[in-house]
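Table 4 source record.
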Amino acid sequence: MAETELERAEKRYAQAKARLQALKNREATKQRKLDTRRKVILGGALLDLAERDSGAATMLDRLIRNLAREQDRKAFADWVAPSGTASPAPSSSDPDTPS
């Protein structure tokens, strides 16, 4: 049985829709990768700055203490703050109270 014109059009529509979705997925992946790259670059720059600037080191310490997720704070559990700064405080401490 031969395809009708309507069936062929529906098939082309489904294929075009699938191509569009694939393009959207590729673009979303590209944007996520760019976002991750930016975060890694800025994180590295901040760590480097903290090595040279005590004000940046203090800010970095405070950022770490204020991380909302416990698993994120655990990533910094063995991190050593640059010399002359306090190490990250336990999650139960008040971030606004000086150490």
